[in-house]
Amino acid sequence: MAKKEFQAESKKLMDMMINSIYTNKEIFLRELISNASDAIDKLYYKSLTDTSVGMNKGDFRILLTRDKDSRTLTISDNGIGMTREELEQNLGTIAHSGSFDFKKDNKDENIDIIGQFGVGFYSAFMVADKVTVISKAYGSDEAWQWESSGADGYELEPAEKETAGTDIILHIKPDTETDNYDNFLDEYGIVAIVKKYSDYVRYPIQMEREKSRQKPEPDPKPDDYKPEWETYTELETLNSMVPIWKKQKSEVTDEEYANFYKDKFSDYADPARVIVSRTEGTANYNALLFVPSHRPYDFYTKDYEKGLALYASGVLIMEKCADLLPDYFSFVKGIVDSQDLSLNISREMLQKDNQLKLIHNALEKKIKNELHAMLANDREKYESFWKEFGRQLKFGAYSDYGMHAELLRDLLLFWSAKEQKMVTLQEYVDKMPAEQKYIYFAAGDSTDRLAKLPAAELVMDKGYDVLLLTEDVDEFCLQIMRTYPRKDAEGKDGTVEFKNVNSGDLGLETEDEKKAAEEATTANKALFDAMKDALDGKVKEVRVSTRLKDHPVCLSADGPLSIEMEKVLSKQPGSEGVKSDKVLELNVNHPVFAVLKAAQEAGDTEKLKKYSALLYAQAQLIEGLPVDDPAAYAEAVCSLMQ
């Protein structure tokens, strides 16, 4: 029979479809199995309304047959089959979808067609240099053979086939230096591909598998008898067919969920939380998600790849679809299965699919609610989770200019100096005295050191709590949020600001105390100017402190960049010049201040310069900053001891 040309398609178009849409050659088997499942769906649907079909759901199957000698792999189904016209229409035109037409003509919501002849079928040419399709349509007396060796065209001729259905015979390419095509004829290779991509196809996918067994022992058995083994083949179902995520939660035990998680995601520990989500409406999907109980070893490295396994009606599309998870929930593992996604779709097209955005938004809300439920109902487990992944949530609140802060703020935990435990921001606010003006915090490298900061001690002496922040992202997180909701004395909705104990007005002093500090600063202007000059630009200002009780000196920051932020940013490449505007604050009631005053009044500029340097170095040590000149500081201290 004369060869026919593809309708309006060329070799270039076929090459583009094969090489760009599918990056993994093994995907061909997923496509052809999905097409077979599709064909069975059609006949099964017909059997529900036409008793003459004479087949039940248990009668359907997909059969894989491999022949290493002839290098063929055959995918057979006993579905609805195709007429000559359908073969020519579905296989003669790239990207034509017979399944799409069937779905369009049948509005029943229970019809779930997952495969589509067209682009998916042509993935076979990634691994085969010739493809033969023999099909007999249900209700027809004729069978037809379609055959093609590539984009040059195809042949269509009558064939012999006893029953309805379709056989797709792939003539597998020989191995090359870069491609191992033999894997697609290997028993274990085929089983692995089926388990990976098509484990949840609803019909049994079967293949003859080679096995061994011990031969029956003779009776009587000789004294020197040794067991003998024989090889045999057995038809085996390769797929499990029923996805655990499609079962009702009441039908699955916690142990079954845990075992599925550990097996699927190669974890040794049970998950901290199982999240089951099902939605119908604008976004139709089933999701089974897991919050791990510990972070992967590479979680905070560039090698970590986030994403959920994405299925289209039980058929794997992508192993890790990053678009389904926001970065701050990147620790979540799991599976999403949607019947609204096209199976024949490239990664690039998938990223633009509006359905993904709808699922992403729904999952984001679900995960947030589940974490909040864990926080409220199982505090110990949540705090264990927080130790592993809390940093990621804080980064989420800070990133994108605080765009997600409102979503995440009630999940955040910080160490309370007063409570001596982790608290939420809401718990802090609930215990604030009515007169407290700010949510106070101190940022540094250890809770013990922060609790001893002069300003922190002063705040706590007033009966107020201080949040002690020890991670580099903490202060950035609170500063980007700026405020937290708090009802006022009349019960009206309002907000309260976050305040670093080492920056700005802490709102602790009375008007009389403020006035006294201003007067003392004015009265000692000459002294403070001399100390500022002695420190040669290291501080923006020297002034009287209202935040010191027993300590002689402290450093504070004037402006939006705190001292702790400076320390964090200075570690970043290219940020060496980032400096906060530091203020040296003095306690006028401390004996040291009288010594400074006496030196200034006596005109002893050398002593004033030396003492200014000493006090600045002490203030640096209190703040956890490196001393500018440790040797000079040590020498100055020693000179005082002589």
Automatic annotation (TrEMBL):
Principal location: cytoplasm
Presence of keyword Chaperone: yes
Positions of the Histidine kinase/HSP90-like ATPase domain: 24-176
Subcellular location: Cytoplasm
Region described as C: 568-642
InterPro entries hit by this protein: HATPase_C_sf, HATPase_dom, Heat_shock_protein_90_CS, HSP90_C, Hsp90_fam, Hsp90_N, Ribosomal_Su5_D2-typ_SF
A single GO molecular function term of this UniProt record: ATP-dependent protein folding chaperone
Pfam family name, one: HATPase_c_3
Annotated ATP binding sites: 31, 35, 77, 82, 90, 97-98, 116-121, 166, 347
Residue numbers spanned by region Disordered: 208-227
Keywords annotated in UniProt: ATP-binding, Chaperone, Cytoplasm, Nucleotide-binding, Stress response
Region of interest: A: 1-347
GO cellular component: cytoplasm
Xref: PROSITE patterns: HSP90 (PS00298)
NCBIfam families: PRK05218.1
Similarity comment: Belongs to the heat shock protein 90 family.
Physiological role: Molecular chaperone. Has ATPase activity.
Quaternary structure note: Homodimer.
Designated name of the protein: Chaperone protein HtpG
Species of origin: Faecalibacterium prausnitzii
